[in-house]
Structures are given as C-alpha cells and as structure tokens.
Amino acid sequence: MTVKVAKTTSPHTAALESLSVWQTRLGWLSLVFVLVGLGMAFFYAPTEATMGDVYRLFFFHMPAAIAGFAGFFVTFVASIAYLVERSAERDMWAVAGAETGIVFSLAGILGGMFWARPVWNVWWTWDARLTSVTIMMLTYIAYMMLRQAIDDPERRARFAAVMGIVGFVNIPLVWFSTRWIDRTIHPVLFGGESAETAQGDLALTQSMEITLMVCMVAVLLLFAYFLVRRARLEMARAELARLREEGGTP
C-alpha cells in the first residue's frame, strides 16, 4: 500500500514567484535607465557656471535621497498594515523598506559630501537638511538594531512597527528644513523659492531638468529592484524556517 504524504502549501509561494518576475523586470529596466541617466549626466547636461562639472553628482545625489524617503515610507505603510492585520508578510516589507531606505540615504549623504568638498571646501557642515537626513537614517538604523535585539518574532514585529511609524515623523522635518531654516546650503527646487541666505542655489536649465527626471526614474527603479529583492529574501528565509520546522528539506 502506498502512503501519500500531503504537502502543505506555503503562504509565500505565490508571492515569491511574483516577486521573482518583478525582480527580473525591474533589474533590466533599472540597468537601462541608469546607463541612459549616466550618459545624460555626463554628456547631455551642460557644465554649471559656478560649480563646474562636480555638480553632476547632483543628478544622482538628490534621487538617492528621495529613494531613501521612499524606503522609509514603505516601512511606515507596512508597519501600519502589520498592526492592523498582524500579517508576517507586512513585517517583511517593513524591514525591506527600512534596509533599502538606509542604503539609499547613505548614498545620498556620501554623494553630498563628495559634492560639498570641492564647492564649499568642507566634507561636512551642520546644515539643516544634512543633519536632519542623518538623524532620520540613524533612526532607522536603530530600528534595525531593535529588530536584532528581540528574539520573539511577533513581539519583534510589533515593537518594530511602532518604531517604524514614529520614525516617519522625521520625513516632513527633512523635507521642509530648507524652508524653515534661513541658513542652508540646500536650495528649494520644488514648491517655493530658496531661502534668501541660502548658499546652495542651483538654477536648472531645461536640459538639466530633463536629465534630473531621467536620473530620478533610474534611481527609483533601482530602489524598487533592491526593495523587491530584499522582500523576496525575507520571504525565502521564512519559507526555509517553515520547512525546517516541518522536517522538510529546502
């Protein structure tokens, strides 16, 4: 007599398959747009009159910072969803958003430092936006440390969700810092004029604006690729843990 062993269906199987497809699509799209963006940043956009060629870092510095905001927004939304639904998958998206947001925020900060050194002769200045972005990034690094400090999965997800929501308060502070603080090296490019005492005014020509938009799309596609990749990794880990508990083999 043959005994058939019923196989339990993983709650993450469909999601893993879907994310695998999206990861491939986003990978190719981001590669194309990044190459086009690099070409436009170096060969299409004109040299800036005051800062010279070093300003070309701006085309990826600003999009990287916005991608960092996007990552923390994903954490914010996923954390709220987790507290409402108590779904482990929502917690996976929250941690994926935080990690990806930290990486892109760090890239934005480093890009700004390499830009600032030849222009303002400093690697670091206690500028309102620079400082607030750094505090925001450190908040989510603390979020990741909190997750590492708690062993129980449900308790870890619950505490992290609360911190992920509270940490999002930093986002409007960062965004409006150039409007609220008089002295800043960061110009207001969208939604208003720069502060009168700003040292960082950057008048964009039409070709600069087009290049910035292409680079913005490129970086956001790259962000989406890493976000999906990280969420897929988290789900794969959960699936591996489930198989081990059931005595199966991955």
UniProtKB/TrEMBL annotation:
Its main location: membrane. GO terms for biological process: cytochrome complex assembly. It is a multi-pass membrane protein. Keywords: Cytochrome c-type biogenesis, Membrane, Transmembrane, Transmembrane helix. One of its GO terms (molecular function) is heme binding. The keyword Transmembrane applies. Belongs to the CcmC/CycZ/HelC family. This is Heme exporter protein C. The lineage of its organism: Bacteria, Bacillati, Chloroflexota, Ardenticatenia, Ardenticatenales.
